[in-house]
Amino acid sequence: MKTIYNSIRDEIVKHSKVRNSVLGNVNEWKRSHYIILSEIIKDELFEAEELKGGKKFEIGNTISHVTLQRFLKTITRIKPTVI
Length: 83
What we know:
Radius of gyration: 14 Å
Shape: globular
Number of helices: 5
Strand content: under 5%
Helix content: 55-70%
C-alpha cells in the first residue's frame, strides 16, 4: 500500500504545473500549499478529455485541499506490510 501512496505522491510532485509553482520550491507543505494543489488539480480535471460531457458530473471535477492533505500526510504513517 505504501508503494501506491508513494507512486501517487511522486507523480503529483513531478507534474510540471506543481514543479513550476510555489509548491516546487518548498520542502514542507502547509495548508495553503494544499489549497494551491487542489486548484491545480481542479484546472487539470476541467480540461481532461475523460471528463467531457456528462462524465464531469458523474465523477466530479474537484478534490478538497483537506482530502489532499490527509492523503499525502498519511503516506508517512503507513507501516510496510509483510506478505
